[in-house]
Every structure is written in C-alpha cells, then in structure tokens.
Amino acid sequence: MNLNIFNLSFAAYGAALAVFGFAYLAARPRRQRTAWWILAAAWLLQTVFLAMRWHESGHVPLSNQFESLAGMSWGLAALAGLFRRRENEAWLGPAAAALCLLLLGICVLLDRSIAPLVPALQSNWLLFHVAVIMMGYAALALSFLASVVYLAAYGTKAGHESAQAVDRFNERAMALGYLLLTGGIVLGAVWANEAWGSYWSWDPKETWSLITWLVYTAALHLRRTHRWEGRRMAWLSVAGFAFVLFTYFGVNYLLKSLHSYAGAR
Amino acid sequence: MIPSKRLRDLAEFFGSPMLLYSLLPVLVVVSVIGTLIPQGETAAAYAERFGGWSRLLLGLRLDDLYHSSGFSVLLALLGLNIASCTWNRRAACARRQDVLLTHVSILLILTGGLVTAVKGERGDLPLTVGQTRDWIESGTRVVGLPFTVRLNKFTVERYGSAGNHLSIACPEEGWAETLEVQPGQSVRLRSADVTVKVLGYYPDFVITHEGPATRSQAPNNPALRLELRDKQGTQKQWVFARFEGFHATAESRYSFSYRLEEPRIKQFVSELEILEGGVSKARAFVSVNAPLRWKGWTLYQAGYDEGNPDYSNLLASWDPGVPWIYIGSFLLCLGLAWTFMKGAATK
Q1: Would B199 disulfide with which of A11, A33, A257, B225, CB 3.0-4.6 Å?
Q2: Residue B345 has pLDDT above 80, yes or no
Q3: Contact B241, B258 (CB under 8 A)
Q4: Taking an 8 Å Cβ-Cβ cutoff, which residues of chain A contact chain B?
Q5: Which of residues 58 through 117 in chain B touch A, CB cutoff 8 A?
C-alpha cells in the first residue's frame, strides 16, 4: 500500500495547525480562513487515501485499529467542518486540526499493512457498525475539545456570552455523539446476532460501550432535566471521553475480548 | 381509576431522578467489575487466579455477574424507574413525544432481554460429516429441536496455500538460510552451492508397514522429505515441523528447522441438510455471518477443529426476545434522533 497520500494528509493537518497558530499569534484572524482551506485539503487527501485503501483491500477500511483510527480522524475533521457552518467558534479549527494530527500520529505507530478479513468481519455490517461508532467517537471528541476549551478559557467566567456558546456547542456535539453511539451499539447488536448468535454477549467491548453510553445518558439527562451546564457539564464531558478512550484503546490492550481483531496487530 | 396515595408515593419514589442517578453509577461500577473479573470460568481457574478470594467471588456470583440475581435486580429497578417516571410525568410526556418514545424504547429493550433470559434456548450443535442430531444442551438441560440436522460436508477455506518455511544451517561453513519450499520444487541456496529438492510433503506423517504415509490432510504432524545435493554428493533427509530433534543425523553437515505456516482462514462452511420425519426438507450452506433460519430456530457456524477436518461446531438458538430488542432499538434511535433534531431547531 502506497502511504504517500497518507503522509501528505498528515503533513497537511500539521500545516493547517501551523497556520491556525500563526493566525492567533500574529493576531491575523483572516488567516483562519486559509487554515480552514488547508484543513479541507488535508481531509480530501485523507478521503483519497481511505478510498484507495478500500479499493486495494477489497473491503471497507475499518477492519483494524489503524483503519478505524484513520476513519475517526476523518470523521472528526468532517464534523468540525459541518459544525463550523453553524457555529463559527475560533477554537474549533485549531483544536480539530491538533486532534486529527494526534490521531494520525498514533496511526503511524500502528501496523499499516492490509490483511485479509477474518470470517467474523466478512459482512456489510462492518461498514455500518464501525463507521457509525467512529463518527460517534468523533462527535464526542469534539464535545471533549469544547469542554477543555471551556475549562481552560471560561472556567471562572460562566456568564460570558462566548462561554455560553462553547457550552451550547459541547451539548450539541455530545447529543450528536450520543445518538451515533447509540446507533452504533444497536447496529453492533444486530450484527452480533447474525454472526455470533446473540445480540449481546457481555463481551468487554460491548460492556464498556454500554458503560460509556450510561455515562453520557447521565450527562445528557442532567443537562436536560436539571439544567447542568458550564463547568459541571464540561467535567462530565471530559469524564465521558475518558470512558470512550478506555472503550476504544484500553479494552483492546488490557482485556480479553471477542473484538480482539479491533486491536493493533 | 385514581391510584391510592400509597401507590402514588411508590410511583414517585421509583420514578424519582434520585433513584436514576443512584442506579446509573452502580450499574457502571458493577459492569466494570464484570469486565475485570473473567466471566464463566471454572472454580479451579478462579482458585488459581484469586487464591482464597475465589470463594467470596463465587459466593457473590461475580463469576457470572451479568446473569446474577443482583444484576437482574439492578436492571429491573432501572426499568421500574423509567416506567414510573414516564407515568408520573405523563402530562409532560404527552407534550414531548420524543422523550416518551425514548423511555418506552428502553423498556422494550429491557423486556426483550428478559424474554431472552426466560424463554430463549441456545446451545452447541457439534457434528462430524455424515452425522445427524436433533437436540442441543441449553445450559444444563437437553432441548429437542423440531427437526434433525445432518452435516453433509464441512470446508475450511483459506487465503492461499500453506507455506513450508525451511531453515538450513551449516555450522562448519558458518552460514544459515531460510527459504519457502513447495513439494516437487528444487531450490538452489544463495549462501552455498547446495540444491534442495522437496521430494514429498506429509501433512499428518505416520510410519506404516508400507513405509512413510500420511494419515489425513490435516496438518497434525507435518513432515518434508528432502534431497540435498552439494559438492560431496546427494543425501536424503526427513524434517518434521513438530519434532525438531528428529532432523539431525550423524553424517549430515547441516542442521534443519521446518515450520509450516497455515494461511489465514477465509471462511468455514457447513453444508447442512434439514430433515423432518426422516424426509429431507432443505439443504443450505451455513457460514459465519450467514446463519440458517428454520422453524424459529437459527443455526450459526460457531467453530471447527484444526485436528479434525470433518468436525463442525454449530450453534442453535431460539430467541423470542429478538423482535422486542430490534423494535426497541429502532424506536430508541428514532426517539434520540427526534430529540436531537428538536434541540437543533430550538436553540
């Protein structure tokens, strides 16, 4: 597999982050627009890379941790672009570019070879289940980023108008991530019933997905029914994302799971 | 009918947010514990791993935590909480149908789980080619199937063919080389003026009265018969993948190591026949992700045996909880999507 396009995309995310940084440090906010264009180019290159990998392997590039992580960063950049259309937050571009860069940096450390699919993964459900889950994680990552920005910049200025905007962003990203996470778990259950003969096996990956879902259920319920917002909501989002990280990385490396093929080879 | 005050108080308690916010962390902690303690192992395995603590662990049913009565009570309380909350706030729910839908969908999913646990049957259906079977062991019970299953053929498909990796070393001359060889093929080494020819491949080597033979095509005892040609002449040599010490011969200047690398499994497929009253009713191929459904039962391809190419392990399941789960799951996604769209529209 030719990884030149992957490396180009990686470099373009880095360039986007650099231009965002320059726009901030040189106090030239108009340069943000240029940075967004570079981010879009990086995303397009990544799209080409994933499409080529799909073509070359003959299956959707979501069959191991390298591919799913690359897919998650792709989803993160796409969602950041979509959110930007509605809420033009200055922190969104640099934060998304930095996280994409970090995710692709982790990808570089993983096995990038293409391997044939094991029998359990030979199903169209692979695309639906993993893609929806990864988009969910990407949305929850955006919620996490908003929370970090909130805690770092507005921790003591809750009433500030821009603080409220970040708080609203956090809620929207979390609600979208929660919806996608729910859909992904449901699709996984349908697939498990087709492949393993049981929609729920209490496998560690399934259980940790449920745990993550319960944490976000509590967070959104507290938000909607008890008006939790600001710092408290930001901390809930940070905690929720810690569960996402353990479900995605921790289970693969620390626990024995039927989802072992999701780990790095 | 107006519910009595006691009933209203009970509904208020069971439907309180406080109960929900107490239950959720407990469910999280208990679920985490269930992933840290291996589930469904033998008492001896727990004793070996946890020593004296294993008795406490087994006493608390932490070995099968998610099917324990304690965990069932937690799920029942969650269901009761959602049902009572929905009832107590029925006026608000009438205005927020998305919330009502979400609550009802979770109740449907919990009901589906209950139906699966109480009514579902599930067990292994191991078969060898030509064998028939009309029962499974579901837990500790024997459950009869309303049909008989016969395994006509079982195939393990692989990506490519097996690779014979042969390492040859000559300590006298100080060289070593590893190469992939195929039966009938001659290979000249790069390190020395030596040619290796594979005279034969015996996947399941055995000595019979007629001489060396293979018991089966399964790679139980892979062996290669080699011919080595060098300046000093020609020698013949046996190499075994599982018995490295057998390679050495006193007169040989070379040492050998042989490894058989099986290609990755692509798919395993059982060719099944369904019989009713001794009459053939259907023939079907069952593979992973492609189960067979017959009279409410589903037959899945579950496993195989490396040592017995005629053996297929199927899994038979009868689960009336599945429709509840699917309907509940669909409604849950619908309810959450509705809430999300409403939120996006009003902010």
Answers
A1: B225
A2: no
A3: yes
A4: 115-116, 118-120, 122-123, 125, 168, 171-172, 175-176, 178-179, 182-183, 186, 189-190, 193-200, 202, 204, 207-208, 210-211, 214-215, 217-218, 221-222, 225-226, 251, 255-256
A5: 66, 113
Q: Is the pLDDT score of A157 beyond 90?
A: no
Of the candidates B66, B291, B322, the beta carbon closest to that of A202 is on B66
pLDDT, mean of residues A206-234: 94
List CB contacts (< 8 A) between A118 and chain B.
Answer: 264-265
Cα dist. A140→A145, A181, B167, B335 in Å? Answer: 9, 9, 51, 19
Instruction: Show residues of chain B in contact with A195, CB under 8 Å.
Output: 288-289, 300
Question: What H or E segment, with its residue span, contains residue A195?
Answer: helix A161-195
B272: which strand partners? Answer: B151, B284
Give A248's DSSP letter: I
Beta pairing partners, B168 = B177, B256
Q: How far apart are CA B134 and CA B145, in angstroms?
A: 5
Between CA B136 and CA B127 the distance in angstroms is 11
CA gap A66, A89 in Å, rounded = 30
**Which residue did the predictor score with more confidence, B245 or A74?**
A74
Contacts of B190 by beta carbon, 8 Å cutoff, 6+ apart: B177
Interface predicted TM-score of the whole assembly (ipTM), two decimals: 0.92
Sign of the alpha-carbon dihedral angle for B197, B199, B200, B205: negative
Query: What does the longest C-alpha to C-alpha distance in chain B come to?
Result: 106
Three-class DSSP labels, chain B: CCCCHHHHHHHHHHCCHHHHHHHHHHHHHHHHHHHHCCCCCCHHHHHHHHCCHHHHHHHCCHHHHHHCHHHHHHHHHHHHHHHHHHHHCHHHHHHCHHHHHHHHHHHHHHHHHHHHHHHCEEEEEEEECCCEEEEEEECCEEEEEEEEEEEEEEEEEECCCCEEEEEEEECCCCEEEEEEECCCCEEECCCCCCEEEEEEEECEEEEECCEEEECCCCCCECEEEEEEEECCEEEEEEEECCCHHHHCCCCCCCEEEEEEECCCEEEEEEEEEEEECCEEEEEEEEECCECEEECCEEEEEEEEECCEEEEEEEEEEECCCHHHHHHHHHHHHHHHHHHHHHHHHHC
Between CA B165 and CA B172, with CA B170 as vertex, the angle to 5 degrees is 170
- Dist CA A100 CA A113 (whole Å): 21
Chain A residues with CB inside 8 Å of B298's CB?
197
CA proximity to B151, closest of B124, B135, B131, B125: B131
Confidence label for A46 from pLDDT (cuts 50, 70 and 90):
very high
Tokens 């902690």 belong to which residue?
Answer: B29
For residues A65 and A189, give the distance between their C-alpha atoms in angstroms, rounded to a whole number.
20
Helix crossing, A31-57 with A4-25: angle to 10°?
170
What is the pTM for the complete model shown? 0.86
Query: How far is the C-alpha of A253 from the C-alpha of A65, rounded, in Å?
Result: 11
